[in-house]
Amino acid sequence: MNYNEEMKEIIKNKKGDRLLMHSCCAPCSSSVIERLKNDFEITVLFYNPNIEPKEEYIKRKNEQIKLLDKLNIKYLDTDYLNEEFREKIKGFEKEKEGGKRCTLCYGLRLSKTGKVAKEKNFDYFTTTLTVSPYKNSKTINLIGLNIEKKENIKYLVSDFKKEDGYKKSIELSSIYNLYRQDYCGCHFSKGERNE
Question: What CATH code is carried by the domain that includes residue 88?
Answer without folding.
Answer: 3.40.50
